[in-house]
Request: fold
Amino acid sequence: AQEVLDRAGRRRRARVATAAGAMVLVILGGLAGMRLVRHDDSPPPVLGSPTPPASPSPDPMLTLDWSRVTINLNHIVRDTCPEVTTIFAPIEQDLVAGPVDGWPRAQFQPSKIAIGDLTGDGRAEAALTVTCLPGPESDDMVPAVLIVGIEGNELLGLAWLERPKSIVAKTWIDSGVLYVDQRPHPSSRAWKYEFGKVPGWRFQGSQLRLVEPARYPAVTELGVASVEGQTRCANVDPKPRVTPYLVGKSGAYYQIEMSDMPEPVFAEFGRTGRPYMVLQISCQSPLLVVFDLVDGQWQAVATGVPRPVIYRHMEESANGLIVRTDLGDKATEYQLRGDKLVGVTGPPSSQPDGAAPTSSVPRQ
Reply:
């Protein structure tokens, strides 16, 4: 009997030990679980914010103060121009010259500079419309286009483009091509102007070469279907007049020929490198019409308000187009807003007396 009791006691002790061991395991498991939960609830490590990529530096050609620059002209050979490193400084509003105390002298308007990559190296060049004067009494003011690049720490004249007895109405750069809108000088008319034609020039090595076919060939017809009602040209007899003359019609296009009326003006209206063409159509009342080059054809896209007289002087401004009925008249500035040319300074008669006169021919 005693042996039976001893065995029963051993079994009870074994069960107690097993239960105690199980309790220890449960407690340890609970502590481990607590540690795991406590680890999971801890805040995530703080990571540094990613460094934003550095903004590309603007092209140095775009940050120059063109009213005070020094240009190395040693590579430009022209009898009436300086052929040395030349310091330019202002002599009038929007007109700088160099050297200001010697001859020959070169001058240009900073507002007329075209900037863009012409050599394909990813850096911009500048096209300056420059006029050179050999002496103080000279009236030989034939303008030319000077291409300037940055070499090392200096501005260097790279190429020179000119046409005798001409004026340069506008230059612009697009897709590596320099466009130069040249017209015969009014005093000579030494060569025939092809209406609306603007040659393009591209560097081949160190030389400028004419681009063919021309992106802006001579204009022989105009797409005016979208504004025909405003031009009042549809039912006019004899043939409606435009500047130039309308001489026929084929579908949505007018055929044209030159007249002695104001020539077209190319104006960017904020669209750099892709200017619009502005004309005056004069069937009943003169009307300013803006054309855009669409698939190789000039299509009317905007109009102004019919006027009682023709504007004989039109010039691109920083924000739009400056027009005058005559050279000495006060100016109206138009801006392109959607399909409308909107006058922002009032008609010439209401322009403030202090307004500065603006010529349709750049100072050259």
Notes: The radius of gyration is 38 Å. The CA atoms of residues 117 and 124 lie 4 Å apart. Helices lie at 2-41, 228-231. The first helix runs from residue 2 to 41.
